Amino acid sequence: MNKKAKSFLRALVTLAILAFAAYFIHVEYQSHLGRKALDATGLEVHTLEEALAKSKATGKPVLADLSAIWCPSCRRLDTEVLAHPSVRSKIESDYIFARIEYETDEGAAFMKLHQLRGFPSLLLVNGEGQKIKSLPTTFSPETFLAAL
Question: Residue 31 to residues 26, 51, 92, 129: CA-CA distances in angstroms?
Answer without folding.
Answer: 9, 23, 25, 27
